[in-house]
Design goal:
Helix content: 10-25%
Radius of gyration: 28 Å
Number of domains: 2
Strand content: 25-35%
Strand order of the largest sheet: 3-4-2-1-5-6-8-7
CATH architecture of the largest domain: 6 Propeller
CATH class of the largest domain: Mainly Beta
CATH topology of the largest domain: Neuraminidase
Amino acid sequence: VQGTGGSSAVSKCSAAARGYIQDRFLRLLVGRRRRRAPLVHRGYYIRARAVDHCVQDFLLKTQSHARTQILSLGAGFDSLYFRLKDIGLLHHTVVYEVDFPNVACQKATLIKRMKELSALVGDIGGEGLGAITFSGEDYKLLGVDLAELSELERALEEAGLDNEIPTLFIAEVVLTYMENSRSDALIQWAAEHFSQACFLLYEQMHPEDPFGRVMQQHFSQLNSALRSLAQYPDCEAQQRRFFEKGWTECSVMDMNKFFTCFTPEEEQQRVQALEPFDEFEEWHLKCSHYFVLTASKGMEPSWTPLLSNMTVPHCDGPVRMAGSITAAVCAMHSEISGLRRYGHHSVLIKPNVILTTGGFGEEDGHHCRMRNFHVLIKHAGYWKAGYMKKEDPDKRWDERLYHTVSCLSNSLALVVGGRASPSSAGLGMLWLKFPETCNASDPGDITVELVSLQSAAEPAALRWRHSTTEVIFKGKKYLFLYGGRSAMEPVLGDWYFLHTQELSCTVIPVDGPVPQSRHSHSACSWKGGVLIAGGLGAAEQPLGSIFFLREFEHGFQWQTVETQPSLIPRYSHTAHVHDGKLLLVGGVWFHSSSVPGITVIDLMTGLCLDYMINVEHLEWPLMLHNHSSVFLPNEKELLLIGGGGNCFSFGTHLNPEPVSLSLSSILTSH
């Protein structure tokens, strides 16, 4: 448990070094320096921002009191006191910090050694008295185990804590490491013994969904299990807990809501531009698995730092499910890995032959950008997997992620866009050529030839997380290239019509309401046009709109598709059209109470139904974002391939094998 405090201090320090948070004291308190990933920087940024927002609100609301105090429980190597003192917010406030005796001793030694720190505090002696390891005018550092409540109470009393003045308790990922009976006792003690009390809690939730399972497993492997989760799995349970333990006001929200409601737009943009970033799914999942809670009692006026005048329409309340669909591991006839990957693309190149290219995943036991072309062939009811022979003399396959592959005939496919790293420019276009006929029973028998192409349309293809969809205009086929993002533009809203024969951009007039820019949306061919659904918009907010681009007199026209009820905003899903119904598969949304399963939209009536995916037959968490899916219309079977990602600092999860869903029950026409 002490190790978690050290590693979180290192992460905060790295975030400060990159400009996410302003904190010049962390580097003095943290011995080792490591550069963390941008995803970890964002995670610690939102944590620091939530704590600072609530602490400063407490200091502001209690300005008129002669004295106030802050008690930081399990403070570790946090720099809160030094930051507040430095910006002049501690005029009449004493800060008490409590942690394990050896942590408190280490911190005390550091403060005495560092001139910049000791000068701010002013050492008045008094350490060595009971549990006190360092004592300043307005700062006391105590070494006590929080689980020993009577010891804690005695130590705080000796250090001068006053239970009649406004007191803010802070527990930043601390209580969850204690047994529930002990953390509950602490929450209750704070409410009972202090006449004017406020509590700030920041920790994990939602242990049972796929991300939550990976998160739990990580902490268990560190031997620091998250103990609150079983009893208090969500915001509602935590809120009930505080009411039952004697607090009169309590508000709580997850970090997606906090970021949306309590971070000004220009600050959101500043943070989003600090480093090249392309892990939106994991960022939003991390934020939906952490909450910030504030509770108070006896405060006049009441302390409610999490009450916002902004309403967030999309997060509250459970999602109504129309039923469930059972997932089963694919019936395979060969043991071959190669499909543990994300950000790849799968396409049906011939009946019962699926080609999967690109992405990031596991090859020969290590993680890398995938070079192999993977084939699944269905033969006599079973899938056979293998690698395709790849002829690539010019080394054109730049190990890409988030590209598209469109089949233009039974022997030709076009690869468009994709990226290597998020800071590099997007990649262009490439032909894949297959033999017209092949004995499609053995994956190794199929050869693909990669052919580079010179095309005036190349600049249009330098993007990723876009879509390319076949449309028909005046009887001719075009590829409609839409949206995505590039190294220069965080989100694109433009489109091109590529004539499939000579790959030139053709100008075709389009009118109607233009969809807002988006990436990670879905696009399906329908009635000669395109259905665009969801996506991530300009402010990194999921979109719930559906558009139909349809052929119209002299060109195309955008039309909005209205659904009943309206579609829950989502992105990073896949989509298919069958028999007048649009199917949206998986993805990420801000409803933290459940994960997206399959949404069926009847394109005639607009009826929109959500189905959950029943995973009881799978032995591993099924993460349905950055996956691919292939729909086999005759069997009404949906194949889910790959998916997953880098789960914050909890390790990488890749779905280990393809999963099959039978959709006949939900696609039968009533």
